[in-house]
Structure formats: C-alpha cells, structure tokens
Amino acid sequence: IMHLLLFLTNENRSIGVSNFNKSQLEELISIAHVKPTVNQIRLHPYNWQAQREVVEYAQSQGIVTEAYSPL
Question: Three-class SS of residue 46?
Fold first, then answer.
C-alpha cells in the first residue's frame, strides 16, 4: 500500500527490481503502470552466459542492469 501511495503522490521517481529473469520482467512490464528502471542481478564473468538473455532483454527495454557479486 505504501508503494501505491508514493506513486499516487509522485514521491518516487523510479522503481527497481532484484533478481528478475526475462519472463518476470516481461510480465511486470505488461501489467505495471511504471516500468522498472533497474534490475539488480548476480552477475560476474563466470555466469555471463547464464544471465545474457535477461541482460539483453533489459537493455532492449531501457532497463539498467546493476550487477552484484559476492567477494
């Protein structure tokens, strides 16, 4: 409910998601009033091929991919 109130009062500028795959992003975009601006995913050189599809889809939709990785 708080997110809805923030949206209705223009208190938020953008939304972000974490660990969404391509199908989850597609579903969210089809039903949401606001498209996310960032998707934070686990990304490093050893899992690039596994994450490539979601990174390329996000890029095509104008969604920034933010990477995180354990030290």
Answer: coil
